[in-house]
Amino acid sequence: MADSTFLQLEEASDFSFQNLPFGVFSTANKPIPRIGIAIGNWIMDLSELDCFSGPEMAKQSNVFREGELNAFMGLGRNAWHETRQTVQRVLSSAEGYLRDNGHLQKRTLINQDDAIMHVPARIGDFTDFSASKRHAENDRIMFTDKSQRILPNWDYMPVAYHSRASSVVVSGTDIHRPNGQYANEDGSVDSGPVFGPTKKLDFEMEIGALIGTGNALSQPISVDSADSHVFGFVLLNDWSARDLQSWEWNPLGPFLSKSFATTISPWVVTAAALEPFLCDPICLQDPQPLPYLRSKSIKTYDINLTTSLQTEGQTEVHYSSSVISQSNYKVMYWTLAQQIAHHTSNGCNLLPGDLIGSGTVSGPTHYSSGSLSELSERGTKPITLVDGQRRAFLHDGDEVIIRGWCEDKSVRIGFGECRGRVLHHRQHSPPPFP
Fold this sequence. Notes:
By secondary structure, the chain is of the alpha+beta class. 16% of the residues lie in helices and 28% in strands.
């Protein structure tokens, strides 16, 4: 098979011939959502192809006509691998099936600018972990005003909370500032809380993993087999209302401060595409994890991450000049395999389409902090943006853009964008008087 495509791609494109991420899209002239693959500026509509003739997909290609990836993801790794090989063959410069058929090209290749992207999977459950030790330490400062000492259980298990799948939205969806309870300005518990729009809206830069094949109830997934259950990865913004979070988080953890919205990128970069970028984690796990979390080979991915903040009315600027945070997924203390093994260790069953959030990807330096509250030190030291404005927390009209990519001398594997703009809060109508 050729190692290049007949299509003309920009050298710096996120969606290279070696990437081929999956997504769900529709168009104005065909508004039914279906499954496609991104390559360069194009989307290849898999529902229009009749070339899936291998043993895994010959009788399963109807899954590409569905408006979600769940059925395809549930087919397992052999089906994923066969599909990837078929698509690479069809797009290769050595294959004439699509290269020499202009009519088929017109039907199957859609310009991304002409497409509407959708949440790529029906997300049944969403679990968000805390896996960056730096972020966990900063959390203790933000919500307790105590030392950086994290709780002793953090070093022994990947901690997480269960968030809302219903409010996971695709990149480009506007986010209304949420209402909720938070402490009075004087911080006094005696004076009681107030209810209103959050004054401390924040982002969290994360990676999300989509489960492909799950496990039966009461049958845990081992740490060494966990990676085989992962279909692929997206960028994730875990929007957070810090004043609501400070008031509600004890004793049961985040609730309304997180559940109002989570944004994910539309293209799912497969584990197969990321395989060349497997690497050793930066963090040494000390103390040694318990036996069920010990892997024969502890690996993670070398994924670069940046977050840009652009203000309302700001003159168009190059993305790089508005970047306020830059980190890498390999700084995480707990690996995805360990998170999955712990998640299922009690017999909990995962299902195709379940979303696993990595937790905020905060590195060892201030600039590698993965949230605005960390960058501004709980709002006490606002950061200065490229247009001279200052931010302690997000303002209405601000747009947060997360990007991610893997890159070496020969190939670039990109995730595209995870983008969301903050809108004014919705009015909360008081109940009528009796």
